[in-house]
Amino acid sequence: MLRRFSALGFATAIAVSFAGSASAQNVIPSGAQWEKVSSVGKGFAEGVVAAKDGSIYLVDIAPPGTLFRYDPKTGQTNVVMEQSGASGLHIDRNGDLLMAQNLPGMQRVIRRNLTTGAITVLADKYEGKPLVAPNDLTTDSAGRIYFTDARYNQTAEPESPNAVYRLDPDGKLTRLTMDIQRPNGIEVSPDGTRLYVSGTGAPHLKPNPHGPMADKFGITRGGVVQYDLDASGNLSNGRLFFKTEVAGTDGMAMDNEGNLYVSAHANPARLIVALDPSGKVIQEFPLPEGLTTNLGFGRGEDAGSLYVSTAAPWGLWRIKTNKSGFYMN
Q1: What residues form DSSP beta bridges with 68?
Q2: Is residue 316 part of a domain?
Q3: Would the pTM of this model clear 0.70, i.e. be above it?
Q4: Cβ neighbours of residue 32 under 8 Å, at least 6 residues apart?
Q5: CA proximity to 166, closest of 86, 251, 109, 106
Q6: Does 327 reside within a domain?
Q7: What is the pLDDT of residue 276?
């Protein structure tokens, strides 16, 4: 049975002040307000994604790793799954929830049927060795899954390197690249020709002894790499798309015009940046509190709402935009 929480008493509206020049291209209209719609978690919210029915799924990665569902129509937040162990979430073309799971001994990519709750393990090993700790994931129009796998706070010594993978519908798993020292968020462009991967520089975290030992693109704090993606799901021509020395980049989202939204955090820095397909900054719009960890657009009538998850304190925030979110399915 789902435990139910009312969002009443948690909602807070806060006016936004913007960095950068005003423009008709701004994603956030002048005078828009941030609204805190849920505060039920304990510490570190992650994995914001909208299901096909418009409900928002997100997790608290603080133990026991709870999976929540927020209903924009009722304002209620429900517990869907305890001990989910998930960080990144994604809805596939069948409407199922893909989860990047990194519990000790269960470092894997799984699929959860949102109707029955049934779970299917999709990938947990590469060439016979366990994955490190799947972090985030996305899909393309062919149903291929792309995910990042990297060591962050895991104490167990890894057996595989930090890397980006592709999982084909037939179950074949391919290691695509080890160019980024610690890959994090991941998104496919609306036209399917580009893959974006964020990298997080964090000197206090344990390195992966299997590499990579350095970042090919010079990401030391935060950044996003853009790859060309061919019709078979292969990568080429990796290049630095965005870089910041202020905070570590984390989860990302895309709108239907191909603009990329990047969250970044480092206490006390909190940052959200919208970038056009050329890499030009359209707008920056930080949250009033909490460390920005991930973000995603709503669906249906809520498609123009941008949702953002935060840590310290845990929160789910929403703001109205001039754009609509892109979903591959």
Answers
A1: 58, 79
A2: yes
A3: yes
A4: 16, 319, 320, 321
A5: 109
A6: no
A7: 97
Total domains in the chain come to 1
Q: At 203, list the tokens.
A: 């000197």
φ, ψ dihedrals at 302, nearest 5°: -100, 15
Which residues touch 261 (CB under 8 Å, ≥6 apart)?
27, 252, 253, 254, 255, 272, 273, 274, 275, 295, 306
The 10s digit of each residue's pLDDT in 216-272 is 999 999 999 999 999 999 999 999 999 999 999 999 999 999 999 999 998 878 889
Q: In which band, very low, low, confident or very high, does the pLDDT at 11 lie, cut at 50, 70 and 90? A: very low
Judging by DSSP bridges, how do beta strands 281-284 and 260-266 pair with one another? unpaired
Q: Which two tokens stand for residue 146?
A: 């792309």
The predicted pLDDT at position 9 comes to: 31
Residue of 286, 210, 213 whose CA lies nearest to 247: 286
In-domain check, residue 116: yes
In single-letter form, the type of residue at position 227 comes to Y
Domain contains 328: no
Domain that holds residue 86: 3-320
SS3 273: strand
Q: How far is CA 300 from the centre of its chain?
A: 20
Question: Which residues are registered as beta bridge partners of 229?
Answer: 235
Burial 175-188 (b: 16+ CB within 10 A, else e): ebbbbbbbbbbbbb
- How far, in Å, are 92, 152, 227 from residue 195 at the CA level? 17, 22, 5
Side chain identity, residue 8: L
Query: Alpha-carbon distance 218 to 67, whole Å?
Result: 34
Domain of 207, CATH number, reads 2.120.10.30
Residues 190 and 224: their CA atoms lie apart, in Å, by 17
User: For the stretch 75-97, what's the b/e string if a residue is b when 16 or more beta carbons lie within 10 angstroms of its beta carbon?
Assistant: ebbbbbbeebbbbbbbbbeeebb
Cβ-contact 254, 321 below 8 angstroms: no
